[in-house]
Amino acid sequence: MTQLANIIKERRTVRDFTSQPIDMDSLINLLDQAAWAPNHGHREPWQFKLFVEGAKQTLLNEIVKSYQRIGITKEYTEEQLIKYKKVMDDFFLNTPAHLLIYMKKQDTQKVWEEDFLATAAFIQNFQLLAWEQGLGMVWKTNPYIYDPEFCDSIGLAEDEKIVGVLHIGYPKKVPKAKERTPIREKMEVVGG
Ligand SMILES: Cc1cc2nc3c(=O)[nH]c(=O)nc-3n(C[C@H](O)[C@H](O)[C@H](O)COP(=O)(O)O)c2cc1C
Asked: 153 in ligand 1 pocket by Cβ < 6 Å?
């Protein structure tokens, strides 16, 4: 297997991180490298907000407010709320960095989808480059990213859309891989 194939196969989504901090210059360097992702019209649609240090609490506060608004935590009992708060605090405050990736909503479906897909390609480039350096992450698309009030609270304009949030750090635990389906089972060879 080539080195690239090996990194693609070995990379895992990581949800549990050590407290080891991430060097900001190295992180930005990885993002610069990820920007060699294909993107149509050279629009480089990806944009970022990086939450570190005290800003992690600010992000968490806005997510908690969003979940109250959306109704996700509305039916929780007192006991469930305490448990939920602890899980959220532990995850958001102990994970070294939260990288929110967004793009401009485009006028036509074609351009919108091109930009959405290019940003996804960027994210996968970044996941692989980070993995090569021993960094792990989970790419999340939780309900708050579709909450306009949440987007406004973190300073996004109405014509901007969150593609995902990457929670990044050095892995404490790497989950086992789930096997992939052989492509032959998903492909109809037409002709030939
Ligand atoms: C577009 C996208 C959205 C995802 N959203 C979430 C999410 O909201 N929460 C989560 O825990 N994992 C999320 N994941 C991570 C997947 O669950 C993960 O990639 C999958 O379990 C396969 O694991 P692997 O990445 O280790 O191969 C997302 C992945 C992708 C590509």
From this structure: no
